[in-house]
Structure formats: C-alpha cells, structure tokens
C-alpha cells in the first residue's frame, strides 16, 4: 500500500512466511525481528531465531542494547540462510541534519522522512523511540498503523548490505 507521504509496505506482507508462522502469531514487541526479516529477505522464523541468538532477545520482549549488538555485527558480519551481510552502524553525523540558526550550526535528529530523502537507495534498519523498521530503496516497511508517522526522530540506523559470494572454479 502506498500513501502520498512515503512509499510504504506492511511488514506482514513483505516478510516471507509471516502469515503462516506459529512463532509470529505468539509474539509481541517483535519489531526488530520484523526489521531484520524484511531487511534481509529472510523468513520470520529465521530472523526470530537470529535475533534471539545474536541479540539475546527474549520471546515477547523487545530487543535490548541494539546499538552494542549491531557494533559487534559490524565487526563480524551477520549471516542468515547462508547469506552473509555487512552491517554498517551509521554515526551521529549520518542521522542528524545540520542547520544554520542565527549564525550557529545546529544539529537535529533526522526525521524518518528526511532520513529516506538522504538515503533513497540501500537497505537500512532504522530505530526510533522504542521501535524499529526497515527502509529499503526509499520504501518504508513497517507495521500497520505506522505509515503516517514520517516525523518520528531517527535514534539509530544500520545499513545492511549483502556480501557478494563468488564461486571459485577449478580447472582440474
């Protein structure tokens, strides 16, 4: 579904296996699981297991200490469904806007709308106050009911890039 403010897709439609997942039906506070699934193209159950193992998420509870865990994944990479991904933690300067006000430079957190404007290409997991979602090539992938909230302030963002895998050919 699209609206006039942002290109939008419901996470429940974008995530493979979401509708048929018994785990998803029993979950709440799983926005980071949905963000990982939609950012990587993984099915819900795989993303759920990954977030549980790598971020220590407990069932029914939101992910804790996300920036710390994502910094570890930035160093080590992440892997889901035999696909490796590079993780880049965006720094404060990358998620703030700079304005001149009365001759002084003022930094303010980007809104979701300005984040998408700044990063129209690529895949990002974006964190706002107690919530996370995916921005993929300018399209917001989030839960139903979140589509008309473009002024939320971005607290953290992580660029997710699939690593290219090359198969080595052997002549003998």
Give a summary of the structure in a few sentences.
This protein has 172 residues and is of the alpha+beta class. The chain is built from six helices and nine strands; from the N terminus they run βαααααββββαββββ. Helix 3 packs across helix 4.
Major β-sheet profile: 7 strands, mixed
What value does the average pLDDT take? 86
- This entry's quaternary arrangement is single chain
Helix and strand run: EHHHHHEEEEHEEEE
Number of folding domains?
1
Uncertain parts: none
Structural class: alpha+beta
Number of helices: 6
Q: Tally of extended strands?
A: 9
Shape: globular
- Largest sheet, spatial ordering of strands: 1-8-7-6-9-3-2
Helix content: 25-40%
Task: Give an account of the 3D structure.
The protein is of the alpha+beta class and 172 residues long. The protein has one domain. The strands form two sheets. It has a seven-stranded mixed β-sheet. A two-stranded antiparallel ribbon has the order 4-5. Strand 4 and strand 5 form a beta hairpin. The N and C termini lie far apart (53 Å). The mean pLDDT is 86.
How does the SSE layout of this entry go?
Layout: E1 7-10, H1 11-14, H2 22-25, H3 31-40, H4 44-55, H5 66-76, E2 78-80, E3 83-89, E4 96-101, E5 104-109, H6 112-118, E6 123-128, E7 131-136, E8 139-142, E9 156-162
Parallel strand pairs: 1-8
Antiparallel strand pairs: 2-3, 3-9, 4-5, 6-7, 6-9, 7-8
Helix pairs in contact: 3-4
Keywords:
172 residues; alpha+beta; two-stranded antiparallel sheet; 6 helices; globular
């Amino acid at each position: 579904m699209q609206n006039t403010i942002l290109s939008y897709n419901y996470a429940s439609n974008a995530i493979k296996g979401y509708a048929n997942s018994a785990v998803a039906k029993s979950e709440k506070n799983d926005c980071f699981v949905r963000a990982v699934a939609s950012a990587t193209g993984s099915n819900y159950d795989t993303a759920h297991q990954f977030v549980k193992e790598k971020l220590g998420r407990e069932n029914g509870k939101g992910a804790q200490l996300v920036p710390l865990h994502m910094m570890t994944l930035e160093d080590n990479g992440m892997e889901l469904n035999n696909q490796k991904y590079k993780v880049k933690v965006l720094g404060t300067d990358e998620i703030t806007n700079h304005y001149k006000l009365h001759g002084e430079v003022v930094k303010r957190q980007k809104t979701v709308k300005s984040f998408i404007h700044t990063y129209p290409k690529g895949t990002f997991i974006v964190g706002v106050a107690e919530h996370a979602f995916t921005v993929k090539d300018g399209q917001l992938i989030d839960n139903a009911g979140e589509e008309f909230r473009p002024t939320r302030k971005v607290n953290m963002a992580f660029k997710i890039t699939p690593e290219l895998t090359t198969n080595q050919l052997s002549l003998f």
